[in-house]
Amino acid sequence: MKPPSLGEFEELVLLTVAAQHDEAYGVSIKDALEEHLDKKINISAVHVALKRMKEKGLVESRFGGITNDRGGRRKKYYVITFMGKRALDRQYELRTSMYQKIPKITFG
């Protein structure tokens, strides 16, 4: 079975979900990405990536409790799955092995 592919943005979202472990939800993921990338991220893009990764089996979700500060709406939390961690490990190994093939180059 061919492992699911990860786009660059999906990889960043999945890394954030893994880093936030059991506390990752749409806005927390968006805020963390904005901080790390130093640019604005559309919350819809985060939700679309999470939906695609859930369909691929890379993340699972659960609903938190109802809170008054959210108008009675519940947060949807995400966690990385075993397959998701394997996908990140493959990406890391691929990028690292390719990076190590770059010869010593000096500029200026």
Features of the shown structure:
single chain; 108 residues; alpha+beta; Arc Repressor Mutant, subunit A; 3-stranded antiparallel sheet; 53% helix; globular; WH_DNA-bd_sf
Characterization of the model:
It comes from Flavilitoribacter nigricans (strain ATCC 23147 / DSM 23189 / NBRC 102662 / NCIMB 1420 / SS-2) (Lewinella nigricans). This is PadR family transcriptional regulator. Pfam families: PadR. Residues 14-89 form the Transcription regulator PadR N-terminal domain. With 108 residues, the chain is of the alpha+beta class. Helices cover 53% and strands 16% of the residues. It has a 3-stranded antiparallel β-sheet. The longest helix is centred in the C-terminal third of the chain and has 18 residues, at 82-99. It starts with 7 loop residues before the first helix and ends in a 9-residue tail after the last helix.
CATH topology group:
Arc Repressor Mutant, subunit A
- Sheet bearing the most strands, described? 3 strands, antiparallel
Main sheet: strand order: 1-3-2
CATH architectural type: Orthogonal Bundle
Domain module tally: 1
- First-last Cα distance: 47 Å
Spell the H/E element sequence.
HEHHEEH
Overall structural class, as computed from helix and strand content, comes to alpha+beta
Identify the CATH homologous superfamily.
Winged helix-like DNA-binding domain superfamily/Winged helix DNA-binding domain
Give the overall shape. globular
What's the β-strand tally? 3
Helix amount, in percent?
40-55%
- Separate helix tally: 4
